[in-house]
Design goal:
With 458 residues, this protein is an alpha+beta fold. The chain is 31% helix and 17% strand.
Amino acid sequence: MKKIILFGLMALLMVACSSSDDGLEPSLVPPAPATADGTKTDSAKTDTAKTEPETVKFAAKYRVAKMTITTDGGQAVDSKDKKDYRACTIKIESDTAVWNYEGRGRIRGRGNSTWEWYDKKPYRIKLDEKASILGLCEEKDWVLLANFRDPTKLMNTLVFEMGDRLGIPYPNHTRWIELTLNGDYMGLYQLTEQVEQGKNRVNIDKKAGWLLSFDSDDGPELSPGADDNFWSQVYRMPVCVKSPEISEKIEVKSEKSLIGDAKKALGDLENIILSHDYEALKQVCNVPVMIDYLLIQEYIYNVEVAAPRSIFIHKDSGDDALWTFGPLWDFDAGFDFDWGHMYDGHGYFADYRETVLGTDPARHISNYDYVPSFFTDMWKDKTFVSEVKARWKQIRPRVTAEFWPEAKRYADAAAEAMERDAKRWPIDKQYKTEINRMEKWLNARAVFMDNIVGNYPI
């Protein structure tokens, strides 16, 4: 009887999704010893792992699986429009047997500049039936990030890990796959969750919660004819309503009313930020998450805050629900990207001494002095600035000791796949060199941030 119970418990563990991104570790991988702060060391560096084959040096979540997608009739995936989804069969082969998968779904292109400008295309997958993919919680919608502009392939991974470990709600996760599409090897892709409302995604009420995106591409600036976007009342930011969807509320309220409700709900938060009233802000916004979110944006020098693009914020239903920044998304415009070659270049890391939010955010003393004041007006409050300073001191030691080493494990485990990807999509950079440059940039940036944050005016 004990053996039966034990077997049942093991089976449950094997199929459980990785909402905390711990990853399923096959029995061949020895348990990673814990450090003094409770984090696990890299199992690849244990004495036991040195005697194991290469494939088991890394826990399962770091390893590269193979994904084969075959569209019906071999149709090309040449559009990102929703109407142009291609029906397909999806097969995943992993060296973690319980992660193997085969099922039906649809595929189309995705992204804006990443779809329009670059040869290696990103994709969106919609499964016919919800499924757990590579240990992640089950859902239908998944994203394949090409990371073509990013010569390290680590920019999104690093920020996803930072957000997850700092406790920013509903983090995205990284799983590497090598994609073969209709018999054509497409290279190394980052599989992650679609940012959307859902039980295993942004878990807010489907009809009464809000998931908004500040994004000039999806908002009225570049999509003026869309029925799900608006200019915000106070700071005039381009906003797209991701949830609830128009179709979810159309039976109860008109489209105009839905947008009006969203504009008012966000406007109430905007007015509090405009007044830089810290006590009032705590009543309507998750301030600790807001601080972490903005510190991450500054640390990686994500200039998309200035546009803005790919900035998410959400709020559940209920009188006591708080506006919460996140999920974190899309970071290949950070790390000092060379915008002079944005259409064909892969240049990063030239200078770590620039700011997005600024050396004095409240006064917009920054390389990007047109960042919406929605992100900087709270620096007019002394208590808020003191909280930012204290939080950076807590985060700072983890940057080099925890966050970067964790991201680097993905690169180490994917070294062979990265080499194949480099041959499939040759660019003017060597990924090994760029990863080393990224590490140096991050270290220098952290020291620079010590000075910037420490000297924010109070």
